[in-house]
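Regression test attached.
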Amino acid sequence: MTKTYQPNEPIWCAGCGHYGVRNALLAAFRQMQVESHQAMVLAGIGCAGTLQNNVSAYGYHALHGRVLPAATGAKLANPRLDVIAVGGDGDGYAIGCGHLIHSFKRNPGVVYILMNNGTYGLTKGQHSPTADAEETDEQAFDGVQLGLSIPGSGFIARGSSASPVQLQALMVAAMEHTRAGKGFAFLEVLSPCVTYNDTYPAWAGRMVNVDALAEYDCGDRIGAFTAVNSLLVENRFATGLIFKQDGKSPERRRLDSGQAPLCDLDISPDRQLSGFREIMAGYGV
Amino acid sequence: MTANALTDLNVMVAGQGGDGSLTVISVLAELLARRGYHLYMSRNVASRIKGGHAEATMRGSLLQRGCLGDHIDLLVAFEQEAVDMAATRMAAESIIIFDASDGALCRDALAPNVRVVEIPFGRFAVRDLRRDLFKNSLSFGVLSHILSIDEGEATNCLHHIFRRLPQDAIAANTKALNRGRQYASELYAQQDRWTLADAERSEQLLISGNEAIAFGFLLAGGRFFAGYPITPATEVLESLQKHSVRFEAVAIQAEDELAAANMALGAAMTGVRSMTATSGPGFALMQETISHAGSAEIPLVVVNCQRAGPSTGMPTKPEQSDIDMMVFGANGDFPRVVLAPGEPRDCFELSVQATNLAQQLQCPVILALDQAVGQNSSTIEPFDLDAVQLQPGKRLDASELRNMSEYRRYQVTADGVSPWAVPGTPGGESLVTGNERNEWGQVSSNPQNRRTMVDKRQRKLDSNLQLLPRGKSWGDADASIGLLGIGMQQGVIEEAQQRLTAAGLRIKCLQPRTIWPVIDETLDFIRSSKRVYVIEHNQAGQLARLLLAAGASKACIGSIRKYDGEPFSPGELCSEIQQAEADRQGESGQ
Ligand SMILES: Cc1ncc(C[n+]2csc(CCOP(=O)(O)OP(=O)(O)O)c2C)c(N)n1
Ligand code: SF4
Ligand SMILES: [Mg+2]
């Protein structure tokens, strides 16, 4: 066996919500029988963005806010990989929010786990877009609401690091969604920062698990939107599998149209010389 | 000009955007190419969708030229503004074919010896053919008469360009052509007609630098491209979108330049050869990503087709004012390569080399174009496709990896390049990061490790200089005066040198193709000269400054700069050099 790097132990503060996310991810990998070399874990910058160091996989530390474009490029290039993008709420909702919108729209087969703690942990506690309105004079942002408003979105879920069993199930569902070629799977995790914004007590009473509601239909976008918004008005939020709709990812569309994965292409120029000659002839005068 | 066949002809067609000026140029290009002329074409369109001044200029010459000539010999103008704008560039005895639909030409701005043929094309086109658009074929008819082209040849060329139009449209355009010829024969004296040469026709391509970049990338195995539209780089994206399906490649339009560059990084990490292309403002946005590719050691090719800055500047005008940004931009110390092609063939070749180099060095490789190199088209010999070779770099496959006792993504090696495995390869699990890290990819700020890693990355460049493309040099190797320029200067320098040589000045020239790092070839060229004029398009003299910083002697460097958005003409450059030489002589005489 080739010796390669060994995952580190996390460097998070004791009690940080991100531990729950990491543990759920490891459990989901086990459940899905993910082979470490077939998994690519890409992370943004922040406390959340150190998770790739703690899993056995191909890990990548992206720039702050740019984890989704990098993950999109990787998945388009090698659709066999389980591509998992992770990051914080600052990473995904502030500096990288433009890419989040376009990832819903573009629908690449990427699982995106966004650890929402309502603060910038790594830079020591500044407000994030989801910080409490009472502290910031600005209304908090809601990523689930955003996702539901984008027509192409196909998998929107919210878990909590305090509910490991459900979290693992949501991760598994997200991976199944992307593996089936259905596209982008967005999973926000309420993952408190015990050091700068300990929301464990405040959030505990505010979560409403839609998975447990018999009448809730996660295939109904309008219903989901209504439910999520009504809860927000009451200062509560939905957790569970909030919305799911079968789409088709761009990499799956490529494969379905008979195109090979980019990473498998034989690129030696003599393989396709006649094609190149024809293009060149098109420039002939 | 009348008696002898034309060896060098500059034609401009100008009017309002949407006038179809380009079709006239295309038909004329076809005609000249059939007569064995080399072509150089430039378009200049106000950055608006429709309307606004638009012009297309073409040079047809029996010698291969890399720029427009000093003057315009023939102008087809659909409006007064077009004449006023071109007036100072008109050659003596030149001809203007003017659309007098809105009244006679006011020729106040014109030299007396410029001849004008006034025909109300637009009005005639509407009157006889019921559509204003036919004025283009009509004007080509006039043009073909003046150039003594017979009806058969003119019709042939027109049909070739319109071959994809429906039959009735072709018929109507043919009619317009003949009307034009008829008007001209009534209005234009037989004895004043010009004649074209009839040289041997060789196989040529008519291609722009941007198109050649895209083509070279595909040949070099490039299969992932992401870009965000921006003038004057968009054609790289568009070309690749056009050709991607056939090579199963991906050419994606991203939501912004940050996404474009980072998508390319993501794909590159899986081993797929990746590129992005942009211009100044977008390149500025990509700085963080370029530094990251340098740090994380990810192979990435970035095309920067420069336009006049700063900020949004003049989007359709060429400049070379991002040299500083390409060479020194972005945070931190990291290795990078900047290559600067000068014409479409160069674009093709350097695109291939850049794509290979990125793999070999695992670092960002920047292709520095300018608007003129990127968007102007010229005729060149077909590319030698068989000569293209792929350099895989130090990629490890599964079996190689299996035979290794350990795999460290950032292993410290003699030449600084670490063998690497891509995701999906069993046994190659690793951490890729822009943070400082140890050989395993684990974050580290240990001072000893830091020095080792910074040095390792720099060594990739320092110990692989032999891989970097050499420049092109020509002229009198023993001359003491040198001309040096990159990108769009190449064609102008070549022609200026020929004229100066003919005037008795001994001159040698260098077009460096690797501008970063500054390689010995460039410095040797300077060291072996008494004077080197560095010719560039920017106000600050960025290239000259770069060479000085690399060790060129201050006494030796003369800086010739321009930043008005218009390329140097060969004549203009000749006078600049002659003036500078005269000044030097004046100084040393005192
Ligand atoms: C371009 C850029 N701007 C700013 C930073 C500094 N920075 C690092 S992490 C971070 C915020 C992290 O917050 P979040 O994404 O919520 O992650 P958390 O630490 O809370 O898990 C910031 C602003 C950076 N690394 N890069
Ligand atoms: S600062 Fe907050 S987010 Fe960061 S590790 Fe500590 S608890 Fe977690
Ligand atoms: Mg946070």
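Expected vs. actual: identical. The first strand of chain B starts at residue 5 and ends at 6.
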